[in-house]
Amino acid sequence: MLRNGFYWRNREMRQHVRVVDGEVAPTIVLENATYLNAYTKQWVESNIWMYEDRIVYVGEQMPDNLHDTEVVDCTGKYIVSGYIEPHAHPFQLYNPEQLALHAAKTGTTTLINDNLLWLFMLNKKKAFSILEEFSKHPVSMYWWARFDPQTELQGEHGLFQTEDVLSWVKHPAVVQGGELTSWPDLLAGDDILLYWIQETKNQRKPVEGHFPGASERTLTKMKLLGVNADHESISGEEILRRLRLGYHVGLRYSSIRPDLPNLIEEMLAAGLTSFENLTFTTDGATPAFYETGLINQCIDIAIKKGIPIEEAYLMGSFYAAKHLRMEEQLGSIAPGRFAHINILTEKDNPHPESVLSKGKWIVKHGEQQKMQAQIPWSKYHIKPLDLDWEISYKELQFSVPIGLEMVNDVIMTPYPIEVDITVEELPAETTDSFLILLDRHGKWRVNTTLRGFTNELGAIASSYSVSGDFVFIGKRKSDLLLAGKRVKELGGGIVIVHHGEILLEIPLQLGGMMYAGEMDELIKQEKELKQILQSFGYPFSDPVYSIFFLSSTHLPYVRITPQGIMDVKQKELLFPATMC
């Protein structure tokens, strides 16, 4: 067995047996608990014993030894396993620790996380060290191994070397490979990518795809090449297509794709009665979407839409654990599992009254317990950016004839620029804005326009983007300069400026990407950001994702990337980046 915080040591397991034998007292006992048994799908009345972070007994007996044991009477309550988010992007302005603490308050006590952030921010040694820090956290934090960066980087191949990718795949905190956004390269014959997939499978870890709108033929080919799962279904028909081909299917409910209610309606209307290969995901929603929780929201929707209550809870816990081959540690109330437990007031109410995560109270009888942040960010030099450059009028030179037009929050199409882009300020009667992607080290830039983001706003500047570079959008060059100056002074963040006045600042002092404070405060700030942008003509629902995904080459049709403006479908660089 592994000995690094992800499994119990032999001496710990012997101690757990001594608890059952009465030689050692359990730390917590839930008495008269009616719990959902994941294996029989029945509600069973039992007593649940815990020793520190592990469930050690579930049955009719009470311990003989109750020395210093906390006994909680659960008469009239209903007990389910802590919920599992199998597809988290834990850096959408928030940082992974604060997301985990916030999620646990509403019952999501395990997160399976994107590792992309660590690839950009840390070398491998430091990244694996911070994973060790997270293994000691009350919330179970696991990770997946990326095979691609979601954008066209300068020097991408240095970031994704076979030795490094396989080191991630083999790490005990990493439980799956993916998500595979570069699947067109795989179909085109990329054997290095295929090798990484097969090595992941050799570790008995699943591989998750990213196949929006994929045909039956494409899904079949990807199955033959080793992919296990996909979370991109946008209809009941697409769910059934994936299930019939043997995929595990994630049902999404996120800030840019709140599809879950319609997905459930359509798959039930199609006659689906088997749910074992379905789970939920919020797919890295932006902060305000999480105000009332993560997977608890999904389970609530599922129950109200007609999925059997027992199945809804298992979709939010046990089925995710089984898919990840972690059912011996997570997803059920049974001996040997982590003590992730939600106490409910009603069977059909998935919003817990009390939450235990690794045997620690997160919420107790409706009262949130004080949880101290414990990740030492400064130890890993994740701190405010120290920038030795400043944006000037030199960087505000525009000559490219093609701009990006917004179709929705994240989809961009090319359009011919017809307005004069040499001026100080673009006219308010158009929705054209200046758009700049600027290297965080100040070495290169890409200048074009963005249509459809605003009809009036002076400027928004952001150090938060999928590539970690700086994004500038706005109608007025003087406001762009002021916003850039203030982002530099903050050491990273998002700044909105209009007519020389700073309207909002969100400091992102963890590497220019993440907020250092608590989620509740960040939620307030994100709501204000959205309100301001909508007042200046932003027509969509999720401006944070609009900014973040400007460089994402897994989305159609044209993107602004560190290499330049790119036609994603043709994999063609239309206009290269300019050196500063």
TrEMBL record:
Q: Where is the signal peptide?
A: none
Name all Amidohydrolase-related domain ranges: 79-361
Which segments does the entry list as coiled coil? none
Q: Domain Adenine deaminase C-terminal: where?
A: 433-571
Return the InterPro entries for the record: Adenine_deam_C, Amidohydro-rel, Metal-dep_hydrolase_composite, Metal_Hydrolase
| Reactions catalysed | adenine + H2O + H(+) = hypoxanthine + NH4(+)
Q: What class of enzyme is it?
A: hydrolase
Q: What is its EC number?
A: 3.5.4.2
Q: Name the Gene3D superfamilies for this protein.
A: Metal-dependent hydrolases (3.20.20.140), Urease, subunit C, domain 1 (2.30.40.10)
Q: Which UniProt keywords apply?
A: Hydrolase
Superkingdom: Bacteria
A Pfam entry, by short name? Adenine_deam_C
Q: Which PANTHER family match?
A: ADENINE DEAMINASE YERA-RELATED, N-ACETYLGLUCOSAMINE-6-PHOSPHATE DEACETYLASE
Q: Which family does it belong to?
A: Belongs to the metallo-dependent hydrolases superfamily. Adenine deaminase family.
What is the protein name given in its UniProt record?
Answer: adenine deaminase
